[in-house]
Amino acid sequence: MVIWKREDLLKPGLVANQNDKKPLEIYTFVDPLCPECWALEPIVKKLLAEYGHYFLLRHILSGKLTTLNLGRKKQYENIADLWEKTASRTGMSCDGNLWFENPVSSPFLASVAIKAAELQGRKKGLQFLRKLQEYLFLEKQNISSMEVLKECAKSVGLDVDEFLTDLHSESAAKAFQCDLTITAEMEVQEIPTLVFFNSNVEEEGLKVTGLYPYEVYVQILEEMLPTKPEPSSPPPLEEFLRHYKTVATKEVAVVYNMTVQKAEKELKKLQLKQIVEQIPAKYGMFWRFNENME
After folding, report:
1. CA distance 154 to 10
2. Quick one: which of 94, 126, 50, 48 has its CA closest to 286?
3. What is the pTM of this model?
4. CA-CA distances (angstroms) from residue 163 to 135, 211, 269?
5. Which pLDDT does position 10 carry in this prediction?
6. pLDDT per residue over 110-130, tens digit each?
């Protein structure tokens, strides 16, 4: 953990304004191909559920994996091994066989696509990022394929024609370059990295690199806020599923303070009611909300 200032990072749309009325801001540096960023998802969901009223969350694409030396068999073997180990350790499934069966041909394009989706709204951009991760880690799809990108855009409700236009626009490329500039200026060398700031841009922030237990992030919030924050209760499970659409058993277990076994039992009750359907994964289980229940 290191202290960092953001005096030189006052870029439009990235620093909280007075209307946001939340005392903290968290920059989350991620890459869609990073299994550790995928493994951070349960913790981020829990932070948002319990303390989301205290902070704004900004996702910054680091571009750390856009320079993969594509086509080298040894490189693919190393990545596949990392994926398998991460999935086994964290419970967030990612199938390393993708790198032998259907490798990602252009990581750069996948990142620009996320910025193109963001041009239709920050929320849509986050939904698109999550859907890309699901296509990649669960379905072993090449997320730089134009067909996969179009399907992903459609599934999160983007205007697909507008998305395809933006994908090849200067706006999306510049937005991604802005993220890369912030990553360099803040000397983010590893991902995921979270940087915590309070509302005063003159004051120091705290940079946290890697994955830590949930309690560590809560402790940082407590140290940076003037009074001890009061956690909210997570929403009813069905509401949580309706909001996120597809979740891992591990995510439910973390957010609701359950064992994985208890979370799976609760999710199977909802499956019997046809509220969710089960999605088998190489490690653990995922669940998709039944849109017909809306």
Report:
1. 33
2. 94
3. 0.89
4. 18, 32, 38
5. 42
6. 999 999 999 999 999 999 999
